[in-house]
Amino acid sequence: MRNRSIARRTFLRHSAAGVALGTAGKTVLAGGPTANSLQRQGQPFALSITRADVLVVGGGTAGCIAAIQAGRAGASTVLLEQGSQLGGMLTTGGVAFPGLFHAWGRQIIAGIGWELVSECVALDGARLPDFSQPPSRHWHHQIMVNPFLYALLAEEKCVQAGVTVLYYEFPWSIAETAEGWCVESVGMGTQRRILCKQVIDCTGGAEVIGLVPLPRLREDERQPGSMLFKCDEVYQPGREQLQAVYVPGADSSTSITRTAANLAGRRAILEKIRGRRLTHLQPEAAVRESCRILGHVVISHADYCSGRLFDDAVCFAFYPVDLHTREGVTPRPLAQGVVPSVPLRALIPKNSRNILAAGRSVSSDRLADSGLRVQACCMAMGQAAGAAAALAAHRDTTPLKLPVQEIRALLKKHGAIVPGDQGNRGRKSIDGGHGISN
To answer: Which residues of the chain have pLDDT under 50?
Structure first.
């Protein structure tokens, strides 16, 4: 692997923050008292040293679940999130309509993600859909969630699991060490060095993987994002979906592209609502697609649509092939009885040790990823990555060398539905298939 200086140059070349630091002549260096420091009124910020078994970068749909799983498995865990809350696209993006946890009348994804979603619905006094029969439209089995409540519950569960949550920080370099990784992060008034055994990249665009650097897959054209809002009537979270405008080419890869997506989304909403009353606006555009890792396995469209059960599958997935364009989307449902699976090897970049990725950056082709990127599957991948990282840290090995049966056993212990469990492809809904209510 390349050294930290290469990662630093890559970061500085591609990020707006790096441009600002470079032009100011204040490149941030790791090291002792002779290193240059970010400064404020001439005073250097103190360098904080943090040690952990597992570092999760990104507290979104996959990341907060990965951190909770690693913490519950007994690993000392740090969760680095550049924003102000957990949940990602479900909370900050406003896509508070997760699915799909059920397929063909049976539950195929459970575990920590399901725990969070079902508790959120119950605490909000709402009801789950009836999952006992396949719906006429896939979205009938998506679950309306109060995103504000979800963010609170996700944070509570992280704290209860012993996870150290660090908001407003992002990594800017990563270097391999004899014990694992040294990750440098920065935030307002903060420099931090995180020494850890395992890293889980849950940034959505495999941003840490890109810093190593390891190869990533990226399309020339990206699916449009969405900016969510509500007009005229008061938004009722957990009871309705928000309105949305498309943001063509929305890209979360850099601060520059994220800024462009937000500006474009807000401009489109303003044009749409002039003369009406705006009652709700999400703070960020929701992004569907950026970069994916090149893993030991690349899940193909054929793998996904055939329901291939990989030998090292660690979770299931279920959603139509759902590729958005400027003109909209026409979902292509999976054939009757098909339930895709996600192998551990698709969460591990090629030519790497002690690093995983979970969420929409899973190693897959574009069409497969259009189904894999949805929230229930990202939660399942996050839990699988958290379990693998915790086990690898405890045993001083790398995730790819772990027996998959041991990962599955840990996942099952924490409520997940496990592929390869006596041929089980799901179970009846834990609520009997008829929803719950307060």
So the answer is: 1-40, 422-423, 429-438
Asked whether residue 68 falls in the same domain as residue 194, the answer is yes
Q: Report yes or no: 121 and 96 within 8 Å, Cβ to Cβ.
A: no
Determine which helix (DSSP H) or strand (DSSP E) holds 292, and give its type and residue range.
strand 291-293
- Sheet with 278-281, edge to edge strand ranges: 243-247, 225-231, 278-281
Q: 386 near 62, Cβ under 8 Å?
A: no
Q: Same structural domain for residues 244 and 300?
A: no
CB 217 within 8 A of CB 290: no
Nearest to 52 by CA among 30, 74, 75, 31: 75
**Tens-place pLDDT, residues 332-368:** 999 999 999 999 999 999 999 999 999 999 999 999 9
Angle between helices 63-72 and 111-123 (to 10 degrees): 110
> For the whole model, what pTM was predicted?
0.88
Residue ranges making up the domain that contains 353? 1-12+42-217+291-438
**Contact at 8 Å (CB) between 320 and 333?**
yes
Q: Using an 8 Å Cβ cutoff, are 125 and 436 in contact?
A: no
**Helix-, strand-, coil-residue percentages of the chain, each rounded to 5:** 30, 20, 45
Residue position matching structure tokens 């890109």: 210
Q: What is the dihedral of CA 34, 35, 40, 44, to 10 degrees?
A: -50
- Backbone phi, psi, residue 316, to 5°: -100, 170
Q: Which residues pair with 316 in a beta bridge?
A: 341
